[in-house]
Every structure is written in structure tokens, then in C-alpha cells.
Amino acid sequence: MQFECAHCTKLTDRPAGHVNRARTLGRKLFCSRECFGLDRRRWKSAEARKEEKRLYDAEYRLRDIEALKARKAEYYQRTKDPVKEAAKRKERMPLHVEYCRRPEYRAKKKVYDRKYRAEKHYGELADCFLLVMEIRDECLSRMTDYEIRLEKGTLNKSLQRRRDYERSVRNSPEIGPLGHLERGERGQNGRLSRGCNRLTGSGDTAYD
């Protein structure tokens, strides 16, 4: 018996019993499984179809993940084209650069890089290193630029270098009336002695 497909409207032959039973139950008749599936999906929204596909893919990957990875690796090795891949990467490079400049990506990458370096260099002590770095960042956030430069010894570096050069090329020694300590040498109480601040007394004791 011939009937018209409910999806593609093509005439198809099927046994009369099958056609009569479907008509009695009020069901649609299709010429193939493909038309049956397309007709079912026709009444679903794009979001619903995407969600069903996502759930199916997640279940499919869990069936045999190792075999799936092996098949994908074998297919890639069999069909890869280095020249084509390089051209595609070069074509998409501007998009990748713009993506890397996004603030959310930079913040995420900063956290990832810090954790990666900590695990690489410190191993089991990575958490301790990260805690120390957080304390350091907090301390730096509470310090002014002047305090940071003074603590690191980078305040007036050009002036210090010029004075060091003048001392190195000067013919006469730079010794004041009370003695002299080289710049950066520490006195008795541990503070840096600058200029002519060394007093010579009994036992050659240095005073600030």
C-alpha cells in the first residue's frame, strides 16, 4: 500500500497491515528513519536541540574515554597538514592577541602563572610560597612609591651613580675631618653611614 510521508511528502510503499495499524492509532507515517528523526526535531527549538546534543556528547565521552582519545589521536596523525595549520594559526593570530588583552583573561592568566611557577619551583611548598606572595602584595599595596624606592635602594640612582663615578676618577681621597666610611657601609647600630660620619676614638669605634 502506498502512503505519503508526513515529512517529505514522498509516496512510499509499505505493507498494508503496517499502514492500517498506524492510521488506526493515529500515528504519522514516514518513508525512512531519517524523515522520522527530522520530523521530531522540527518541533524543538534550537536551544532545546543544543542542550540534548550536549547531554548526549557528555554521556558518549564517558563510555570509553581512552578509546575515544586514541581514535581522535590516530585520526589527527593521519589527516594533519602542518602547512594548513600554520596558515590557519596566522590568520587567527589577531583574534588571539585581542583575546589575550582582555582584562578577565589577564587576571585569570596571572593567577594561573603564579600557581604554575610555585608548583614547578617549590613542589610541596607551593602553598607556602603563594601565601608569602599574597603577604608581599598586601604590604606593597600599603606602601607609597617613595617608601618602596627607599627600601629597595633605588632612590636617586642616577645621582648615586654620578657620585660613584666622580669618586672613582678623583685624584685626592675623599676624607672628612672626622674620618670617612664608604657609601653603603654600616655603622655600629646597623644603619647606613653616608658621607663623613665616622668618628675615630679609642678602639677605632664607629659612631653615627
Characterization of this structure:
This protein has helices at residues 16-25, 33-42, 46-63, 65-79, 82-100, 103-122, 126-141, 145-152, 157-169; strands at 2-4, 11-13. The longest helix is centred in the middle third of the chain and has 20 residues, at 103-122. A hairpin with a 6-residue loop joins strand 1 (2-4) and strand 2. Among the domains are: 1-43, no CATH class; 82-142, no CATH class; 175-208, no CATH class. The chain is elongated, with a radius of gyration of 40 Å. The chain is mainly α and 208 residues long.
In brief:
This protein has helices at 16-25, 33-42, 46-63, 65-79, 82-100, 103-122, 126-141, 145-152, 157-169, and strands spanning 2-4, 11-13. By secondary structure, the protein is an all-alpha fold.
List keywords for this structure.
208 residues, 62% helix, disordered C terminus, elongated, two-stranded antiparallel sheet
Number of extended strands: 2
Q: Helical segment tally?
A: 9
Overall geometry: elongated
Widest β-sheet, arrangement of strands: 1-2
Topology:
Layout: E1 2-4, E2 11-13, H1 16-25, H2 33-42, H3 46-63, H4 65-79, H5 82-100, H6 103-122, H7 126-141, H8 145-152, H9 157-169
Antiparallel strand pairs: 1-2
